[in-house]
Amino acid sequence: MDPLRTRLIAEATRQFVERGFDGASMREIADACGVTKAALYYHYAGKADLLRDIVAGYLDQVAAVVAAGRRATPKFADQLRAIVRGLFALPVESRAIMRLALHDLRHLDDADREAFAADYQTRFLQPLTDVVRGGIEAREFTPHHPTTVVWLLLGMLYPFFSATPRATDESQIVADLLDVLLSGLTARR
Amino acid sequence: MDPLRTRLIAEATRQFVERGFDGASMREIADACGVTKAALYYHYAGKADLLRDIVAGYLDQVAAVVAAGRRATPKFADQLRAIVRGLFALPVESRAIMRLALHDLRHLDDADREAFAADYQTRFLQPLTDVVRGGIEAREFTPHHPTTVVWLLLGMLYPFFSATPRATDESQIVADLLDVLLSGLTARR
DNA sequence: CTCCACCTACCGAACGGTCAGTAGGAGAAT
DNA sequence: ATTCTCCTACTGACCGTTCGGTAGGTGGAG
Description:
The structure is a homodimer. By secondary structure, chain A is mainly α. Chain A folds into 2 domains: 1-44, Homeodomain-like (Arc Repressor Mutant, subunit A, Orthogonal Bundle); 47-186, Tetracycline Repressor, domain 2 (Orthogonal Bundle).
């Protein structure tokens, strides 16, 4: 449909992830796509506009993973498992956007940033928190502050959400992660 | 002794943490200290030189925390507890440097970056890994890949190592974190 | 003829970094 | 006591480069 627009977003994602928002340059993004900077500005209003589209697309992906994980199974522990596996199954460039979103969101103008933050809360953090809270209320999990548990879970993912993979055998990492996390959440006191 | 040099490093840390390495400007760092940019360059060879000193000071702090935690107690689980509490007890600006070091290390020249990476490995990651491995060998912890466990632990800390604190009651977070992590590591299969 | 998609050419601003110059104090020589 | 020298710790003006962004033109498709 719109191959240049798609290629520009892909290239911008690559550069933002690799060099950060500030470190990336509009000229190099355009050059890498074989067009001039003016062509880039024809399709996107500005640098922040690129970032906004990138993080919005990322949010769509992770929100879909969480929603699918919740639908997949009734047991809350299995929902968590499905969600973590789903997040690891995202293409590596998508995962790296997690870092980008956390770090460079400040470059969006106030309205866009607040809109993203609100969407992130309702479409990603809130459903995740609901899984944890549901697990605690169903006595599947030991009682902890659900929000804190979600932060711990996302933090555990963080080191592996890099553009440069930490290890070749990711399935072992996912297994260890889920084992430590779920043992920690389900251990009897 | 050397108050300007100290103030420059403190201000540079503040700006690097707040706006990132690329986003911070030498002029503004100097301005905030009430001197010109040239004065800054009299004390530091360049922007990367500032970053090098900042992350080196950070490494000294976290290495000291790990060493103290290892000495404090013979039980490996208690060593982990002491280390996590020690890391959370660091001043908030020190903790934020963890993000800085992970993200902006690429701005150091090859020699400095490799030197830091080596120091980080031997003085921080290795001792931490030894605690986990020791705990596994002593059958305090369930068997997992020690390196992975260290990454999971550091990741769990990560969301709380921000310049803007996540919560007012950090002791509750530390307690939840240690509970989830150590339950996860000590649960019987 | 018009409009889309793109180009060339350029803008002002900010960047990291450099350089000659100098205020002011310490030390030695006279 | 005075002068000369030297050094540290700066200043202010400036360098070339790169930045995000824009104005106006052009060629091809319908």
